[in-house]
Amino acid sequence: MSNGPWQPRGQGPRNPNPWGGGPSGSGGGGGREPPDLEDILRRSQDKLRRVMPGGGGDGGGIAKLGVVGIAFLAILAAIGWMLTGFYTVRPNEVGIERVFGKFVSITAPGLNWNWPYPVGRVNKPTIGVQTIEIGLRSADGRRSARDVREESLMLTGDENIVDVDFSVLWLVDARRPQDYVFNLRSPEATIKAVAESAMREVIGKREIQPILTGARLEIERAVQELMQKTLNEYGAGVIVQQVQMQKVDPPSEVIDAFRDVQAARADQERMQNEAQTYANRVIPEARGEASKITQRAEAERERMIADARGEAARFNSVLDEYKKAPEVTRQRLYLETIERIYGGMEKIILDQGKQGSGVVPFLPLNEMIKNRTNEQGKR
Predict the structure, then answer these.
(1) Protein fold of 130-253
(2) In the chain, where are the structural domains located?
(3) Engineering a disulfide at 55: which of 61, 164, 270, 378 sits with its beta carbon 3.0 to 4.6 angstroms away?
(4) With the CA atoms of 50, 53, 57 and 60 taken in that order, what torsion angle do they form, in degrees rounded to the nearest 10?
């Protein structure tokens, strides 16, 4: 017999155990024999047969044990996989459940369950108010805000350039948050692009002067309405809450000239206001004076009409008397007319034909004339 691989040449028969010492009582080496693997497997099978009900044969018991173990492990894996479907929605979030990619339901804040990945997925968008800045970037810490001029420089309707920095306050529509999740690939970028486009459109329809002075509220409302209309057409599921214009100035290169123009316009408005104040004070006075003159003329007209009517009545009465006694009435009219004509004259007319020698010498005619003149002056 040839020598084996574990026995040196020139020695006796090799030990059938390749790990060293032979069986007990042999004349081989005295090393310990390693455990027999087949014996260990056999003992294990015997124990399993005793434990398993109806286990008598060798191959059937091992097959049944393998099936039960696999089923048990599968159940444990399924339970663990199902447990991964629990998720929590925070108070400022809303849950969007999907199964095989299809929208299923909206879940409220709290602990919820959905089919785990890869069967189901859950999106949790924030429903609180968020802010997007256009034309500037607010820096953290001690640094001031950074101006982004490629976003803020805009062209007005009268072909002027204006620098507009503004911010948009928006939030996800809690009634249809699935639109926000499924219809927008980049929600914030889309909202920012819509805001910038809406502001440019609104600014492009107005002149620069109202933009710099008193049209801010009107512009903010117009931009908000245009943004909301555009996002609704996109089905974005977004509510534009407010548009706030932070800064509206001409470009820095020409801001000094614009300030001079603004000062001149302010002086113009001030002078117009002063002129309007003066007009408001003078016009009522002139209207009052005109009314007074009109009333005075009306009174004078009424007086003259009354005098004319009185004269007419007197003439009619004289005419009636004249018809009754023409000679007497004619003589009386003649005398009254002579008296009215010569009553105020400083002349004395004497009828020498009737008086004979003339005036009585001691008659004080001059004094009588003076006294009569003084009396008329007092009247």
Answers:
(1) Tetrahydropterin Synthase; Chain A (3.30.479)
(2) 49-83, 87-123, 130-253
(3) 61
(4) -120
